[in-house]
Amino acid sequence: MKMQSKYPKSFNFFPETYLFPHHKDQINQSKVKNQIWITKPIASSCGRGIQVVKNLSNFKPLGASIAQKYLKNPFLINGLKFDLRLYVLVTSYKPLRVYFFDNGLTRFATKRYTNKIGTIKDRFRHLTNYSVNKFGDKFVPNMNAEEDDKGSKWSWKGLRRYFKKHKINDKKCVRQIKSLIIKTLIAAESRVSHLMNFAPKNDSCFELYGFDILLDNQLKPWLIEVNLGPSLTTDSPLDKKIKGNLLEDVIKLVQPVEQQQVIDTNEFIKEKNLDTNKFSQDDIKSIIQMEIENKKRGNFRRIFPKQKSKKYLKFFQSENSKIANEMKKV
């Protein structure tokens, strides 16, 4: 939210959001009372406690909660609202290295969407949480992992095939999704990097995130939330396929390399023609680690740093930006 205030045009992918009770006075003094909001308890999951409300001034949460402006113009397929669960792996915050998994989940509501006020309490119409909709009368379970564009849960690849079949160009949308992922992680980078100073061996740390994203009717992606512990349960053949491949590639990417796979530092510096006056030993170590990760990334694709990373460097709040500035050239 601080980055959104500082860079409003660059961080315009996050709906207006308030925290209860922290922003209570701010809400009462604003003009947001008569808008529709989606509210959820902090540190909750599986759709528990989520409500769609018309007036925040009458909202009385039982504990700390988030209120997010409801997006009333979602992209619809067969009249149904959906969101995306996309998987992102960070193998380092010092310097930042971000990998995007090439498949994910498309999760549908089970009743046709309408933005009429009288329907806002219908959870099967307005919520896309799988944990909610699987109890709906119109929920269609996946029975075959290869049929990943049917039923109430598709794959990310299945959605992209749908776009292609219907001549919908999603290339800009995909670029925007990757960009909002990078910016979101950069927004947290300074705080996490500081905490990493207390880790006894921070080069062995990693984090798998589940990014929940909603597409509006112009195919603009909106960040709904980032899950620190995305569900890895497998209730269907499609879940088993996607999450099984995900876990396999996470383990391969983060596990230590065999002794024979260790890269000789001096040979690497010579091969890459690295300027040792420009790079510190820690920088070179990070570059070598990135080279090792690239050889065992499986279905992950590194989205940061890359050759075109320079446009993101202004958003960094720590010295990591200097390291990333050099690493993008490698």
What would you say this structure looks like, in words?
- The protein is an alpha+beta fold.
- The strands form two sheets. Strands 5, 6, 7, 8, 9, 10, 11 and 12 form an eight-stranded antiparallel β-sheet that branches. Strands 1-4-2-3 form a four-stranded antiparallel β-sheet, with no helix packed on it.
- A hairpin with a 2-residue loop joins strand 5 and strand 6.
- The protein is globular and about 70 Å long.
- The two termini are 32 Å apart.
Q: What's a concise summary of this model?
A:
The chain is α+β, with helices and mostly antiparallel strands and 330 residues long. The chain is globular, with a radius of gyration of 21 Å.
Question: What does the secondary structure layout of this molecule look like, with pairings?
Answer:
Elements: H1 2-6, E1 17-20, H2 24-29, E2 37-41, E3 51-53, E4 65-69, E5 76-77, E6 80-93, E7 96-101, E8 105-108, H3 123-126, H4 130-133, E9 153-155, H5 156-165, H6 171-196, E10 207-215, E11 221-227, H7 237-254, H8 265-272, H9 281-295, E12 300-304, H10 320-327
Antiparallel strand pairs: 1-4, 2-3, 2-4, 5-6, 6-7, 6-8, 6-10, 7-12, 8-9, 10-11
